[in-house]
Amino acid sequence: MIELLYIDPGSGSYLVQVIIAAVLGVLFYFKNTWLWIKSFFTKPSSKPEEEKIDDKP
Amino acid sequence: MTNLNRHPASFRDPSGFIYEKDGTVFRFVSSTYSQHFQKLKSSGLYNDLVAKNQLLSFEELIENHTGQSDWLTTLRPLQIPFLNYAWEWSFDQLKDAALTTLAICKSALEKGMILKDAAHFNIQFVNGKPLLIDTLSFEIYEEGSAWIAYRQFCECFLNPLLLASYSRMEAHKLLLAYPDGVSASLTSQWLPLSSKFNASVLLHVHLHAKVGVKKIKAADATTKPFSKKSIFNILQSLGDCITKLNPDARASAWNNYYSETIISNEYLTEKKVIVSSWLKTITYTSALDLGANDGEFSLLCNKEVLIVAADFDSSCINNLYLKLKQNRASNILPLVLDAMHPSPSIGWLNKEQPSFLSRKSFDLCLALALIHHLVIGKNISMEMLAIFFAERCTYLVIEFVPKTDSKVLAMLQSRKNIFHDYSQENFEAVFAVHFEIRQKTTVLNSERTLYLLQKKR
Predict the structure, then answer these.
(1) DSSP string, B257-326
(2) Which of B41, B119, B122 is nearest to B75 (CA)?
(3) Torsion of CA B122, B217, B113, A51, to 10 degrees
C-alpha cells in the first residue's frame, strides 16, 4: 500500500488496464457475436450492433 | 504578471494557466503545448465538442498579457457565471459529468487525441450542462499507450457513484471528504458483496483494488503496446456501467414535501401567486433560493437570470436537476448545500476552490419556509439570520412561520422551548435593522406571513 503513495495519481494503472482490456476484449467479442446472431432472427429495426456511450447526457 | 491574478488552482499543468485581468478570466497557453493545441483545432475536435455543448468555448487573442517568453496564445473562455463543485452536485449531476467526460475522451480518440486527466474539477455546470473547462486536458494520442487518466476517472467518478448507488453513501459528501477521489481499495471494502455480481464493478473496482500495487513498478517498466481498441472498450464498459446506475431509492426526508405534506394545495398556489407578483416588481440579475426543495419557487423567477437553487437534501436537488434537464430550463443551477455547513474553501492554501458564500453575492434571496428550521431546529438567532441575508442580497423574499404553526409545534414537541423571542414582532424588529418592508401579506389558510424586504442603503 505504501508504494501507492509514491506513484503519480494520474498513472499507475497500466497493469489493471491490461487485464481489464483483455477481459473486455473477450466479453465484447461474445456480445457482438451474440448480437450478430440475434440480428438474423429479429427485424432490421432492432438496436444497433454496439451500444454507444451517450453523447448527450 | 503584476496586474494579473493567477488563479490559485492553476499550477499543476505546465502547458498553461488561468488568470484574471480586469474582472475577466483568461487562459495562457504555453508554446510547449503548441502541437497539441494545433491538433485540437485542426482535427476538428474543438469545433465538434463545442457544437455538442461538451467543451467550454473560447475566443483566441493575439495579446500576451503576461510578458512570458513561452507564450503561444491567449484564450478568453466563456465566463462561468457561478462556480460549482462535485461536493455540491447531486447523483445525476455527477453521473452526467462522468458520462460527458467519457464521451469527450471517445471523441478525442477518434480524432487522434486523448484526455490526459479526468478529474471532476475539470467539469463545471454551465447553462444546465456539464462542460469540460480545461482546454489543455487534451494531448496527442500516442499509439500503444494506455489511458493515463483511467485511475483518476474511476476515483473521481465511478467509485463515488457506485458507493452512492450500492451503499447509500452520498457521492457529494464523499467527494468533500476525498476531493481527489475515492480509491479502488476503499470502494472495494465499502461496496456490498452483491456488487461483485456486476462484471463491470468486479473489473473496475474489485479487481482494480486486488491487482497488486506491488506489481505496478514491474509492469510499468515493461510496458507492452496497448491497442486503441482496448481504450475504446474500457470507455465503453465504464459508460455502460455508469449509465445503469441510479441513486439509492430509499426516499429522503424532504423529497415528498409538497406531495405528502399536510399543508394544503391552496396554500402553495396562493404563495406562488404572491411571490410571482412581487418578483415582477423588482429588478435582479441573480438569485439564490435557499431551501429550494424541488425548485417550485426558483421556477417563478426571471428565466433570463442565474438562479442558484440550493437545498441540503440531495434527493430533492436530484429531482430538480432531472426536471430542469427535461424542461431545458438552463438558467437554474441546482446545488446541494447545507446552510449550516456551506461548502468550505479547500485546496492548496485554502484557495483553490472558494467557499460557497465567498463566490458571489446575489441581488435576490428566497427563504421560503426556511427560517423556523434554522432558528428552532438549529438555534440560529434572528439577529444572525438578518445579518446573514443582509450580507448576501439586496432583496429578500422571506416567510415567517409562527410558533402556533403545526410544523413548528411538531418541532417543539421534541425539544425544550427556549425560543422566547421567536415571534413575528421580534422578527420584524430584528430584520428592520437591515431591511425595510416593501410588501407583507399573510398566506391564505395558514398563519404564515410572506415578506418582500429591501436592504436599507
Answers:
(1) HHHH-SS-HHHHHHHHHHHHHHHTTS--SEEEEET-TT-TTGGGS-TTSEEEEEES-HHHHHHHHHHHHH
(2) B41
(3) -80
Maximum pairwise Cα distance, chain B: 76
**pLDDT value for A51:** 45
User: How does DSSP classify residue B353?
Assistant: B
Which of B16, B8, B50 minimizes the C-alpha distance to B34? B16
The pLDDT tens digits of the residues spanning B46-82 come to 999 999 999 999 999 999 999 899 999 999 999 999 9
- Closest by CA to B319, choosing from B265, B252, B263, is B252
Amino acid at B321: Y
- Report the C-alpha gap between B19 and B2 in whole angstroms: 11
Rounded-to-integer distance, Cα B457 and Cα B455, Å: 6
Of A12, A23, A50, the CB nearest to B216: A12
A1-52, pLDDT tens digit by residue? 344 444 444 455 788 888 899 899 998 888 888 888 888 887 765 545 444 4
Could you give the ipTM of this predicted complex?
A: 0.73
C-beta atoms of A24 and B203 within 8 A: yes
Q: Is the dihedral of CA B321, B323, B324, B325 positive or negative?
A: positive
Nearest to A53 among B99, B147, B148 (CB): B99
What type of residue is B442? Answer: T
For chain B, the distance separating the N- and C-terminal CA atoms, rounded to the nearest angstrom, is 37
Query: How many inter-chain contacts (A to B, CB under 8 Å) are there?
Result: 111
Over range B333-349, report the average pLDDT: 95
Cβ–Cβ below 8 Å for A20 and B117: no
Residue of A nearest to B103 (CA): A55
Mutation site for B-interface testing, chosen from A7, A20, A32, A52 by largest number of B Cβ within 10 Å: A20
A3 CB neighbours in chain B (<8 A) are: 213-214, 216-217
Give yes or no for a contact between B187 and B169, defined as CB atoms under 8 angstroms apart.
no
B221 has a pLDDT exceeding 50: no
Residue B197: its pLDDT value, please? 95
Which residues make Cβ contacts (< 8 Å) with residue B106, sequence separation at least 6? A53, B232, B235
Reported as a single tens digit per residue, the pLDDT across B155-213 is: 999 999 999 999 989 999 999 999 999 999 999 999 999 999 999 999 999 999 988 55
Contact (CB<8Å) A15/B216: yes
Contacts of B96 in chain A (CB under 8 A): 57
